# Entry
Amino acid sequence: MKERYRIMARVPKGQGDMPEVVRAKSAPNKVYFCNDADTQWYKDNVPCRQACPAHTRIPEYIDAAARSDYDRAREINLMDNVLPGVLGRVCAHPCESACRHGFEGMGEPVTICWLKRSGADYATKPPKIAIAPSTGKKIAVVGSGPAGLAAAFDLNRWGHKVSIYEGLDKAGGMLRYGIPRFRLPEKVINDEIDRILEMGVVLKNNRWVGKDVTLEELATTYDAVIMAAGSMIPTKLNIPGDDAAGVMYGLDFMKEVNSGAIKKVKENVVVLGGGFTAMDCSRSAFRLGAKKVTVAYRRSRNELKVDEREMRETAMEGVDFQYLLSPHEITKAPDGSVNGIVFSRMRLGEPDKSGRKSVTAIPNSFVSLRCDMVLAAISQSPDVSFFGGNFRVDEKTFATSIGKVYATGDYLTGPRDIINAVGVAHKTARAVDRQLMGRDRHGEKTAATVFKQTELGSYTGWKSIKGNIFDLIPKQDMFSLDLSARKDQNEEVDLGYNEEETYFQGERCYLCNHNVVIDGKACILCYNCVDVCPYNCIKMLQEDYVQVQTGGGEPQPEKKGYTYMVMDEKNCVRCGLCIDACPVPCMGMEKTEIKRSFTP
# Structure
């Protein structure tokens, strides 16, 4: 995060200490570009929320979980990301990379994902889901994966009659068929889907669009059709020998494993790819009897798409990793089955459009691995054959080239992750609702609560922990099954936090939706808050050293004789020591809650 300076107070000229004393206290060595905080500024100042594609109210639900209010923690996640039990286990958690606690010199990020799981696992009461009066509109959602479920959840809450068309026996898409049960138990998936169906969403399974019903028929029957069918077509290897017996594509393999069709694999398995599907395939092969499993990736370790813990867990289970290898040829035994794979050695180049380093083959440099099964988990693409080669989507409305048909999730973006699919589905659902209703029924509500100075430590107003030690609590990894117990494909590996661990890990959160405030009319410019701040966050500045950013214009000096009390938001940990040290007192901690609103 870049430097972020917020004006807490403008103290009028002549107020507080003598002018020469104030000048002596506030002699900076640079000009500060400062902001008056507005709603967008407050949102930007919570980096985890801004990094979440679904804009989940992360500090709010972590605070609730830490206070053992699991029902509220689950409800916040349900409203914001729809699938709290699922995402608490398998979210890609881009929020954690953005967490302020993980900034340089600040420690390690908060375990945001696992605290989401605690809220879902320990909640006891049925969530309160308000359903708007019927609009009389009917919507078909094609696909029951994360995007389809999220779109159906939203649109049903807003009063539309929603039917989900699913070609397979059960709903869930790749949640059910693409992610192994040791990472995502089937009961968790069922609970999430049942909750949505109990709201009134209709599930029509075993109904393939394009086979049992055409897209045009749906567009005639419904007021809107949302394509949320995911990216299911595997990217072909297109190398000699890719038709050998024993070559499978990653999602096809996981579907067969999760449906019970594959119960055992060959002894020596090579997995191609560097994403979560590749890890799932390799770890599943380990459980299904493979004696040797190797993941081969064409880039280096630094370009892998999975996080460090997933990499570590995979390696702990005995999976070997080989880097800078790109498949060149699959060799066959006389009976046509796989007996090996030849790779081209690769060299890293400049970053490509994905931000990762590109690779080029080293001429005439090859390496061979013996194997009897190859699982290619390279990538996938959506089936856009419905559109006759004319698949176009409007960036603002999500409308396709077929009237009344919209696209969302991985079907629109290509293969990404669950939380991205949910985030796109939220946007699509709002766009469809606007189109059907002829007006925008969606907005935001902001609520502020100020915690004043208290005798026992002001932090007790906004934190539940006893003792101002939350910045010193170490990150706790999640306990998991012992390696000796990891042979059952259906036995969940990660055990979740217990309630005590949830409490302490939740208290690590800085609660970035809280901000120190000062009553400028009462401030005496005593400098106590500046002195006591452990991270040198508070600045007392004369007007010559302050330029104020307003709107989209250039920063300008105000020249009104103010002394400015400014907060460097980048490093503030919300410890409250400044509030405790204020002798007036004129300081407090303001909690700003920003949530979506809906007007029927």
